[in-house]
Design a protein that fits this description.
Layout: H1 2-31, E1 39-53, E2 58-62, E3 65-73, H2 75-85, E4 89-99, E5 105-116, E6 129-130, E7 133-134, E8 153-157, E9 162-174, E10 177-191, H3 207-211, E11 214-225, E12 232-244, E13 254-264, H4 266-312
Antiparallel strand pairs: 1-2, 1-3, 1-13, 3-4, 4-5, 5-6, 6-7, 8-9, 9-10, 10-11, 11-12, 12-13
Helix pairs in contact: 1-4
Length: 329
């Protein structure tokens, strides 16, 4: 009986020991992914800020500028692309809506971001765009990969429609979470006008061609990223935009369009941190808790099986040394 039990325990030990690496290296890359129907909204503010009055084309100090960013999963489009790409794909229809202190629109830029649901690598397909302009992204945007590494990444910038390195700057603690801090500085760069701008009587799509006035932008971009889920728990930008030259400025060399330190509004920051803490448990379950648990369980069962096997093989005492068997009356 002991030998039979040891064989059963040995079989379970092999099963759990084999299941441990399968969960981590086979199941995790295939099962853990971004859902195609995800919806997320984020409100950021710059308080105070410098903003251009497009009526007078004069810059002025305002109490705040609000930026509303929405990411909406487009399930129908993702299913179409999946059929031709042969892998799980997520399509995010994003919108960055900038409003002044009076709540009126300053600019809005729509995007379509197409990426691999598991690795977050860009997937190039018809419809990939920024503000109606077709683009071909390289690197990441909005989110880092699961199990983010301590290294630099290529990060796509929607303003110039190009990618540039975003640098890993060290490990920090943010609201009880150990996070990786990334930073990117974009020098002054000429960028296209948003197609929707509150300039009376002017078509923004032909503004540069008509007036010779160009739009320039620089930013310092900062992210605090949870390395388990790859989701930013906080993000900030020190952002500046200018109009330069041409006839639109009435002889001036340049004028500030927007300048401010953009931060996530506190209530949305609380929601984001809670959401990331919840999602990281699922990732840790597949990458750490279950694999290590199964490995420890398999090792324990193996040890128990060896003990039972050793006991079953222990030689019995010689007949002379055994206690006499009782004789029935």
């Amino acid at each position: 009986m002991r030998r039979r039990a040891s064989l059963v325990l040995l079989a379970f030990a092999v099963f759990f020991a084999a299941l441990s690496p399968l969960l981590r290296w086979y199941a995790f890359p295939r099962l853990v992914k971004i859902p195609p129907s995800q919806y997320q909204e984020m409100v950021l503010e710059a308080k105070p800020a410098t903003l251009l009055d497009y009526g007078s084309l004069q810059s002025k100090q305002v109490e705040k500028v609000t930026i509303v960013q929405t990411l909406k999963g487009n399930v129908e489009e993702s299913e179409k692309i999946e059929r031709s790409a042969g892998r799980d794909v997520v399509v995010w229809d994003a919108l960055s809506y900038v409003a002044g202190p009076d709540g009126k629109m300053v600019s809005q830029i729509p995007e379509r971001y197409i990426f691999d649901a598991h690795s977050q690598a860009p997937v190039h397909a018809t419809g990939e765009m920024v503000d109606g302009d077709a683009v071909r992204r390289e690197g990441i945007e909005f989110k880092w990969p699961f199990l983010t590494e301590k290294r630099d990444y290529e990060y796509f910038d929607a303003q110039p429609r190009t990618s540039a390195p975003i640098h890993y700057m060290g490990t920090r603690t943010f609201r009880g979470l150990e996070v990786y801090y990334f930073e990117q500085t974009i020098p002054w760069t000429k960028v296209p006008y948003p197609k929707k701008m509150p300039i009376p009587g002017v078509d923004a799509t032909t503004l540069e061609k008509q007036t010779g006035t160009t739009r320039w932008y620089t930013t310092k971009r900062m992210f605090w990223v949870d390395p388990v889920t790859g989701a930013p728990v906080n993000g900030e930008e020190i952002h500046k935009e200018e109009l330069r030259g041409g006839t639109l400025l009435g002889g001036r060399d340049k004028v500030t369009v927007f300048a401010g330190h953009v931060k996530i509004r506190p209530d949305y920051l609380d929601y984001t941190v809670d959401l990331v803490k919840s999602n990281r448990r699922m990732v840790l379950l597949m990458t750490s808790y279950l694999p290590w648990g199964f490995l420890v369980l398999g090792t324990g069962l193996l040890a128990l099986a060896l003990v039972l096997e050793a006991r079953s093989r222990r030689p019995r005492a010689p007949a002379a040394e055994r206690d006499p068997e009782p004789v029935p009356v």
